[in-house]
Amino acid sequence: MAHAGTLEINNLSKQYQVKGEALPVLENISLSIKPGEFVSIVGSSGCGKSTLLRLVIGLEHDYKGEILLDGKKIVGTSLDRGIVFQEHRLFPWLTVEQNVGIGLLNAGLSTAQKNKSVQEHIELVGLKGFETAYPYQLSGGMSQRVAIARALVNRPEVLLLDEPFGALDALTRTHLQQELQRIWEAEGITAILVTHDVEEAVYLSDRVVVMQPRPGRIKRIVDVPLARPRDRGSFAFSQIKDDVLSEFSDTPRGDIALVQPQETLGANWQFAW
Amino acid sequence: MSAQATVDLPLSARQPASLGLHRVIRLANWWPALRRLLLAWPFPMAIFVLWSLASHYQWVAPQVLPTPETVLTTFGDLLRNGDLRSNGVISFYRVIAGFGIGAGIGLALGVGMGLSPTFKDYVYPLFKAFAQVPSLGWLPLLMMLVGIDEALKIILVAKAALVPVALNTFKGIETVPTRYIDVAKVYGFSKWQLLAKVVFPSAFPMIWNGVRYGLTHSWLALVAVELLASSEGLGFLIVYGRQLYQMDVVMAAVVVVGAVGYVLDKVLALIEARLLRWRREAF
Fold first, then answer.
1. How far apart are the CA of B186 and the nearest CA of chain A, in angstroms?
2. What's the confidence (pLDDT) of residue B282?
3. CA-to-CA distance for B133 and B126, rounded, in angstroms?
4. Which residue in A192, A262, B5, B157 is deepest, having the highest Cβ count within 10 Å?
5. DSSP state of A215
6. What class does CATH assign to B83-275?
7. Are strands A72-73 and A64-69 parallel, antiparallel or unpaired?
8. CB-closest option in B182, B201, B278 to A136
9. For the purposes of burial, counting CB atoms within 10 Å of the CB of A110, is it exposed (0-12), middle (13-18) or buried (19 or more)?
10. Does the pLDDT of residue B153 top 70, yes or no?
11. What is the C-alpha separation between A261 and B234, in angstroms, rounded?
């Protein structure tokens, strides 16, 4: 097994150019992640959490600061780092096993080794028997399992997850969270999960990083010192969850007055959005 | 909100995708297919009946509208004396040669335009202008340039295939989703791997569409050219019949032209169904 990686992010800043103006997306992000640690990043939309993940995977460039994996600066994408996107992004023209095998295309293994690894990872995500199914034959949850297998098949040091369960129904999501925890424990891998689901973050993580938007900054890091498997109904769990949630429940700002409904002629119109 | 909570739910709510490993892969359902087949019949039958009535009761002069029996007899004669075969073979050869050349060049052009923006900027405007002129619009000019021999037919048929193949190939490659390209980057694909494993398969349905259009257009263009400038081929047979005032020959040839066009497209459709198994059929 590949050893789990140490990820070090130092003073990371990133900005986009929008119509000639600089739009800062991330500002001074510093975060150190231990080998085998599970860290979640939560924040409202627009806080740059997905951008952060795209920088770590190597799909975005032109940043200030450093991203180090085991002390080495990351350059572009690499098989050391696997990612699961919000949409499964399986290739619809390939079967389940071929899709997982895509991850090994450049891994430099023999065909036999590749087949073995693909098979192991399909079993790991619980899809034995579906090797030759095409993506259109799979449900959303199953597709996301395949995507997880594809991300892990290279035995990367770090697994990045970009709201992987965001598009799934609540029951499937709960189930896959348990599955993800089992897989993470089995692989002993470093994991970074971006999510807007606080319960998901607290359930899975050793630490929860709360980000705030415009520009994206780290607001607070919350430790989750609970033993696994965690009981979502327990008092300690709720307490931590409430603690994280309190970071989002902004007290109303004094400088903004409540918008008063305007009494105009058109005010009787009700649009249905 | 843990696993126990699910126990209270009605079965229907628990069953779907959630734990979804037991989803049954759809069985081929034969009834809708049969229904579609049956629904295809009434219309042609009605036209056939109308034709029979019109010719039997001579609503139209028999020289203009022969009876179905006459057409069938003529069809048999043309088959026996080899006219249909020899002309059919010639047309078939021309369409295959012209289509092969046209589709080949179209594919190369489309790939070039799809992959290289510079190349696209060079040729796309001219290509678009070229495509706006129907194949037959080039006929007079080409007749002057290459004469009225085989070259004329092959070039026009090739042009008819080239345009849809090039356009669809270009669009297919241009619209490969970025999300797939991201995946390829994550797994360190080389340029070549990206092309072979992502760009081409993703563009393939559109490319194949272009090929199907191309073949249909080729066939139409060929018959049109043969009508105007040929001394053999199925299109010529139609003109020949008209010149001799043998509408039965004309109609027999028209039916054959339609049938050949239909079969050509059907063959490509069958290949498509085989190659594009991975596409969801119904949703």
1. 5
2. 40
3. 11
4. B157
5. T
6. mainly alpha
7. antiparallel
8. B278
9. exposed
10. yes
11. 76
* Alpha-carbon gap, residue B282 to B32, rounded angstroms: 12
β-partners of residue A211 are: A218
Q: Which residue from B minimizes the CA distance to A57?
A: B186
Interface contact A77-B185, CB threshold 8 A: yes
Helix axes B83-115, B150-174, angle to 10 degrees: 40
Query: How many Cβ atoms sit within 10 Å of the Cβ of residue A262?
Result: 7
**Cis before A24 (ω within 30):** no
- CB distance A14 to A63 below 8 Å: yes
Strand order in the sheet with A72-73: A21-33, A7-18, A64-69, A72-73
Query: Distance between alpha carbon A144 and the CA centroid of its chain, in Å?
Result: 13
Chain B residues whose beta carbon lies within 8 Å of the beta carbon of residue A58: 185-186
Q: Which residue has the tokens 């393939």?
A: B204
Rounded mean pLDDT of chain A?
82
Cα A117 to Cα B1: distance, rounded to the nearest angstrom: 35
The pLDDT of residue B201 is above 80: yes
pLDDT, position A175:
84
In degrees, to the nearest 5, what angle opens at C-alpha A163 toward C-alphas A159 and A169? 125
Chain B residues contacting A, CB < 8 Å?
Answer: 1-3, 6, 14, 16-21, 23, 25, 179-180, 182-183, 185-190, 193, 197-198, 201-202, 204, 276-280, 283
ipTM of the prediction: 0.79
Look up residue A127 and give its amino acid.
L
From the list B6, B179, B190, which residue is nearest A87 (CB)? B179
Residue B204 CB contacts under 8 Å (≥ 6 apart), including other chains: A93, B172, B275, B276
Residue carrying the six token digits 């991300």: A151
Cα distances (Å, whole numbers) of residue B25 to A17, A135, A174, A246: 48, 12, 25, 46
Domain locations along chain B = 83-275
State how far the Cα of A262 lies from the Cα of A269, in Å rounded to an integer.
12
Q: Which residue has the tokens 């579906």?
A: A130
Lowest mean pLDDT segment, chosen from A215-219, B40-44, B153-157: A215-219
Q: Are the C-beta atoms of B89 and B237 separated by less than 8 Å?
A: no
A126:B21 CB<8 A: yes
Distance CA B56, CA B45 (A): 16
Smallest Cα distance from B12 to chain A, Å: 13
Dist. CA A101–CA B119, nearest whole Å = 34
Domains in chain A (CATH in brackets) are: 34-60+75-249 (3.40.50.300)
Quick: pLDDT tens for A51-76: 888 888 888 888 888 887 887 888 88
User: Which residue type does B183 have?
Assistant: V
- Chain B contact probe: residue of A78, A88, A102 with most B CBs at under 10 A: A102
Q: Measured between CA atoms, how close is B9 to chain A, in angstroms?
A: 11
